[in-house]
Amino acid sequence: MMDDFDDIMLARTPTAARPLLGLTVLVVEDSRFASEAMRLLCLRSGARIRRADCLTSARKHLRVYRPSVVVIDLGLPDGSGTGLIAELDKASPRIDVLLGISGDPAREGEAMAAGADGFLSKPVETLGAFQQAILSLLPETAQPPAPRQIPDEAIQPDPFTFREDIARAAGVLQDGPDGDALDYVAQFTSGIARSAHDTQLEAAAVALAKDRAIGRSIRGDVQRLSGIFRERLAGGEVV
């Protein structure tokens, strides 16, 4: 059941400055840093945002609300986002816009094959790129008035959310994870590192993923990654 605020938002029409007014965006994303970026992008664009950090939570949202746009991360703690994309693509009525998102641009084909309408490569840092990804897939009746200048404003998520992501990944690694959990830590960490432009952390995560894939010893990779986690948490820095 929609509250008064929902009614107000849905009744509003898009403007040149707020081209996504009236839309509700469900972001299915386990990274707090990436979620904060999406919150800022939606806020500046006029859209309302709902967030889920896993597939289970997303499905609970979707049983109650019908968003206009769903942005689904492909690597989630309880499975691949492609499964949810495929479900929503086949659902009736269908969500207006389905977008896959990943820190690995090579996964675009995977998202599109599952039924996504488009793909976002992390980090998504400018309003223009975010808005165009959605507006290009909406019907003409949902478009803002033209002409409209495409904004090049960059957003800057709160660095504290990056530290929260680091703490989460470090906790999983400290627990002595099994193979699947190690793979998750590697892909999660590489994604947040790419979003934060932390090249040292990204390289360490990618090395762990590569050595896991070819069956090479990962002891050194885990030690290196754990050390970087400690440095980031101790220093409070975002590179």
Automatic annotation (TrEMBL):
Pfam families listed in its UniProt record: Response_reg (PF00072)
Keyword terms of this UniProt record: Phosphoprotein
Any GO BP annotation: phosphorelay signal transduction system
Keyword Cytoplasm set for record: no
InterPro entries reported in the protein's UniProt record: Bact_response_regulator, CheY-like_superfamily, Sig_transdc_resp-reg_receiver
Top-rank taxon: Bacteria
Domain Response regulatory: 24-137
Keyword Phosphoprotein assigned: yes
Sites of 4-aspartylphosphate modification: 73
Name of the molecule in the record: Response regulator
